[in-house]
Amino acid sequence: MTRIINLALLILQVLLGLFAIALAAPVVEATLVEVIPGPGMPSLASLNLTSAQLYAMDPLSHGLDARGANIEEKCFNFDLAPRTQVSACKSYLTALGKTMCGVHAPAGVHGFYQAFCQAGKAMIYGANWGPTDFAGSYCSDVALAIGYLLRDCGANGGDIAGQIAANGNGALLVSVVGV
């Protein structure tokens, strides 16, 4: 009987020791990389938003069916960007609503681009692909275009890269790339 009690006490001491070690171990929280607006874009503070709030938003919650059948997107399998970071930038651009996201360039000269958002390794930018010196859309329309890339690119929910015209403006080419 004494042996059983001693064995039970030994087991209890071991369990209590393991519990104490578990309590003393530091808690490691997943770190979210900062969402950084592009040059000239509104700050997160001006929108009363934090990076954590942007990561928590549902990236596909804003009416993808509104675009219609005129979708000309390209998905790439290189320069991939982490899906969660792309989603955070999409949430930022959605929050901007009717703020203009645009690119200035000399008329008819392609290759000028403007960064709209970066989060970690994900970069969202627009390029002026039109015949005029400015191509722009509401930032919410840029976000809608990114939603299509999130939905259609990246096998099995993996990292993504691609290009698509902004909703309602074929002259503003929106790109999602990893940097």
TrEMBL record:
The lineage of its organism: Eukaryota, Fungi, Dikarya, Ascomycota, Pezizomycotina. The keyword Signal applies. Keywords: Signal. Residues 1-24 form the signal peptide. It comes from the Eukaryota. This is Ecp2 effector protein domain-containing protein.
